């Protein structure tokens, strides 16, 4: 899996034995591979290089400023959804003109900060938001660019909670309404409404929804142009599949093979907002076995990481490949853990220490035999892992460690108990 590989039965992150990292920073911990991040970014950049493309990595997937810094240096722009993410991008030294800003509830302060940055495009989610942007732009004597977010009413066939491009969603406006929005606000003289934004949702596993959405959006752009509006860019959002189970998601090149020909010669700049497809496989979460336990017919492996550290399995029912960090030869992981049936492997639930029935990392999973103290790697933990973690059960948030070749650096320290109450001392 990318730059997390087993050598002689031991898991390495690039050139570093992950057990060494556990010795240095303890467990649980997030471990990132810089090379994997950059490889995934480069794959997207190359796949769309025929077009005038700006890749805006979606900060909410994984937002450590040290990671944003090297992505910015590699040419990435950023997709933000809050003032806090704008601040992070600025701290990382991003070219703010390559920032796009989505979100249904932007506050006045967030909008003013983004105009001052200045960012590239505001992705507008409603008429009222656009009116407010026009008003604030007038007051502050700015001329920001904006893209209207449209709902192409396409189902990416992912989990309901990660589906955002259907008609009944709180995001954007439907295609028919989009034309009326341009009619009413297209020539307001203050905000340059000159682009269309689409984001279908996350974790799609096929190319078709993008093709369908793009067809509908290109038709809309033709209509808008015929109505006399200048449309300079199309933002196709994110949601490109990240490979969680091995070879179950299309690669960037597969998406591009369908998308690029449709956009050639259309005189449109392309913006993409990949999050998970860049970040997901770029990290593991390393955790330690605390106890083994039987409950009726079930076997539980109780580890020191909980749903507060990685919430995706209970929240989205997401699959993460999970395997011990040190294994005997016969337990070298195969291609797909779901089908894995190695002699001597066991079917277990891997659960955390939190007081909730939903606190699991995997259920009914085959796992090589483990003992108290063994290290276990939860793969594909780079996207919506650390960024969705919390202090629930007053558990300090994990350290983030960045591996670069043969060296590793702690890019965020583990929280301490004092950190937990620091803001409560009144
Ligand atoms: C979350 C989000 C993305 C990134 O989605 P991924 O599934 O991580 O690729 C892109 N654009 C917008 C507007 C988002 O909200």
TrEMBL record:
Q: Which residues form the Orn/DAP/Arg decarboxylase 2 N-terminal domain?
A: 39-280
Per the record, the coiled-coil ranges are: none
* Its EC number(s): 4.1.1.20
Q: Which GO terms describe its molecular function?
A: diaminopimelate decarboxylase activity; pyridoxal phosphate binding
Give the residues annotated as active site: 355
- Cofactors required: pyridoxal 5'-phosphate
- Could you list this entry's UniProt keywords, alphabetically sorted: Amino-acid biosynthesis, Decarboxylase, Lyase, Lysine biosynthesis, Pyridoxal phosphate
Kindly list the positions annotated as binding substrate: 312, 316, 356, 384
Question: Do you know which Pfam families this protein is assigned to?
Answer: Orn_Arg_deC_N
Stored InterPro entries = Ala_racemase/Decarboxylase_C (IPR009006), DAP_deCOOHase_LysA (IPR002986), De-COase2_N (IPR022644), Orn/DAP/Arg_de-COase (IPR000183), PLP-binding_barrel (IPR029066)
The highest taxon in the source lineage is: Bacteria
Please give the catalytic activity noted in the UniProt record: meso-2,6-diaminopimelate + H(+) = L-lysine + CO2
Q: Name one GO biological process term.
A: lysine biosynthetic process via diaminopimelate
Q: Keyword Lyase on this protein?
A: yes
Q: Where does pyridoxal 5'-phosphate bind?
A: 239, 384
Its pathway, per UniProt, is: Amino-acid biosynthesis; L-lysine biosynthesis via DAP pathway; L-lysine from DL-2,6-diaminopimelate: step 1/1
Give residues where N6-(pyridoxal phosphate)lysine occurs.
Answer: 60
Quaternary structure and partners = Homodimer.
What protein family is recorded?
A: Belongs to the Orn/Lys/Arg decarboxylase class-II family. LysA subfamily.
What the protein does? Answer: Specifically catalyzes the decarboxylation of meso-diaminopimelate (meso-DAP) to L-lysine.
Name of the protein this chain belongs to: Diaminopimelate decarboxylase
Q: Which gene encodes it?
A: lysA
